[in-house]
Amino acid sequence: MNKLQRCAALFLAGIIFLLSGMPLHAESATEGKLVLGTSADFAPYEFHKTIDGKDTIVGFDIEIAKEIAKDLNKELVIEDMGFDALLPALQSGRVDMVISGMTPTEERRRSIDFSDNYYQSKQIIMVRAADQGRFPTMDSLRGASIGVQKGSIQEEIGQGIPDAKLTSLDKISDIILQLQTNRIDAVIMEDTVAAGYLSDELVLADAVPDTTAVQAAIGIQKGNTELLQSVNETLTRLKNNGDIERMVTEASQLSAGTKDEKALSIWNVFWEYRGFYATGIGYTLLLSALGVLFGFIIGLFICLIRMSGIGIIRWIGSAYVELLRGTPMLVQLMIIHYGLALTFGINLSPLQSGIITLSINSSAYLAEIFRAGIQGVDRGQMEAARSLGMNRGKAMRHIILPQAFKAVLPAIGNEFITIIKESSIISVIGMVEIMYQASVVKNITYQGMSPYLIAAAFYFIMTFGLSKLLGRWERKLSASDIR
Ligand code: ARG
Questions:
Q1: Segment 441-465, tens digit of pLDDT
Q2: Which of 149, 190, 215 to probe ligand 1 with, by most ligand atoms within 8 A of CB?
Q3: How many beta carbons lie within 10 A of that of residue 206, not counting itself?
Q4: Pairing of strands 145-149, 186-190
Q5: Ligand 1 atom showing the smallest separation from residue 105 Cα
Q6: For residue 391, how far is its CA from the centre of ligand 1 (angstroms)?
Q7: Burial call 444-454: b when 16+ CB within 10 Å, e when fewer
Q8: pLDDT in tens, 393-410
Q9: Which domains are present in the chain?
Q10: 102 alpha carbon to ligand 1 midpoint, in Å?
Q11: What does the pLDDT read at residue 366?
Q12: Cβ(125) to ligand 1 under 6 A?
């Protein structure tokens, strides 16, 4: 086998390993698991709470889900994501059902089915106490800055207010933070959820967005009548027993307990949530290490393609590099994670999507670094090696590549450091790495600064440590140059 073939084989083996080692959600759904999609920022429906030192998703939606799973004799698995990611997740089969205080609108009914309604609330406007009298009617909100949750019906209401400056965010807690820090004037939300935030600082305005009740129902994939029927049976049982009311009361009490604001110092935050960060660090390291490993292998392969003697092959290599360097990694991640699922039914887990994205993204940069290194080695080296009787492959392996590698080591090191930092982007698809955990801690503690400072410290320790390590290796390698 020549080098190219060997690289290709290694590359394929890597991909097979990546795909086989970790189970797909589509499979797990059939293995006696019921995957629930939710946006756990909506107390008392669903929210995060530390129970026995462990981050847990609780709320009355979760209790309902547990009953449904019990009736189906399946194990409940919860996937937490942004509210606007729920519909695509359900359509693509990433989750089996959505319980997230979701209102069954006509628009949504076009893409998914809904169970019977199980709860209702009212639309309200929340403002800072100082602004209490400022918005007596919906008309007075004209031109105001308004916060809403991305993809929610509140977003639609906001879009209907003339000249309003809309801030649409993933998580309710972030919207509240915007209101508290004077970045927006008002939030459109539901009274059941607002109840948890009302205080001396945050109050209800008199304006009412809509007097009709907001319903909540369970989302099921279109055509899955079997699940729909079973869900409705469970709901009927819970409603008739008064269980739903009890669950709502219990969840409200649980969430009230979350809000007793303690003045936490950054050390307290760190110590109390060290377990969260430890998990995050583990996944960040795993993502970066595998991203680097596969990026390296793919990069080498692409580099050889780019230096091929055949024009069309060279062109393919260039196109690969240019496309990946010319588009944001966030976009690549979305295509791999959601695009592949919705279009081809390839349902990758966040870990798989993360590793694939990091690998192919960094492979493009590494391919260029390798190429620069190889082309930087003096032509005479190849000629000399050939005249000593080595064939091209041998000369490449023993003479050119070692010199090239030494020359580009600092650039490779930089790329590795970049991958560690960029892996934070994977948090947006729900990968539980450092950045994701920092947001979870922020949502629990209502501290806007310390969770991120702690995350920054961890990233810095990792990148600085790596850069020191690489520096030492570089010096060792260059020792042979100084004679
Ligand atoms: N009921 C509203 C809707 O369906 C908001 C639901 C938001 N739910 C959540 N878990 N954040 O659009």
A1: 887 787 889 999 999 999 999 999 9
A2: 149
A3: 15
A4: parallel
A5: 4
A6: 66
A7: bbebeebbeeb
A8: 899 889 998 999 888 989
A9: 3-22+272-481 (1.10.3720.10), 32-118+217-230+251-261 (3.40.190.10), 120-214 (3.40.190.10)
A10: 5
A11: 95
A12: no
